[in-house]
Amino acid sequence: MHNHNNSATELANRDERTELGEVTESTARPWQVEVGQLLQRAAALCTEHGVEVDAYMSGAWSAYVEARPGLREQLEEAQLRDQLDELRRLGRIGEA
């Protein structure tokens, strides 16, 4: 079971840990602190307006993909490659 009580700042800083494995704001980079604050604000707004978690996560993922030029195409290409590999494995299409 995941602990959903972690703050967004802690999640954004998960790569910045002390030797004891604890996340502290003093070990965070400025952009990580800002990301944590923005995530907290977005989550608060969504919960205040009754947005379901799946819709929130879907919106966050879409925003992330849109912010990374070429990522959507890269993901689509990888998915197509996987589908073709599966069809080849099943013998439904041949290899060239």
Overview of the molecule:
- The protein is mainly α.
- It has a domain at 1-51.
- The protein has four helices and no strands.
- It has helices at 8-12, 30-48, 53-67, 71-89.
Shape: elongated
Cα-atom radius of gyration: 19 Å
Helix content: 55-70%
Main β sheet profile = none
In DSSP terms, counting alpha (H) and pi (I) runs of 4 or more, how many helices? 4
Order of helices and strands: HHHH
Kindly, what is the distance between the CA atoms of the first and last residues, rounded to a whole number of angstroms?
46 Å
Outline the low-pLDDT stretches: 1-9, 15-22
Count of extended strands: 0
Structural class: mainly alpha
Fraction in beta strands: under 5%
Mean pLDDT: 81
Using brief descriptors, characterize the structure shown.
96 residues; mainly alpha; 60% helix
Task: Reconstruct the topology from this structure.
Blueprint: H1 8-12, H2 30-48, H3 53-67, H4 71-89
Summarize it.
The chain has a domain at 1-51.
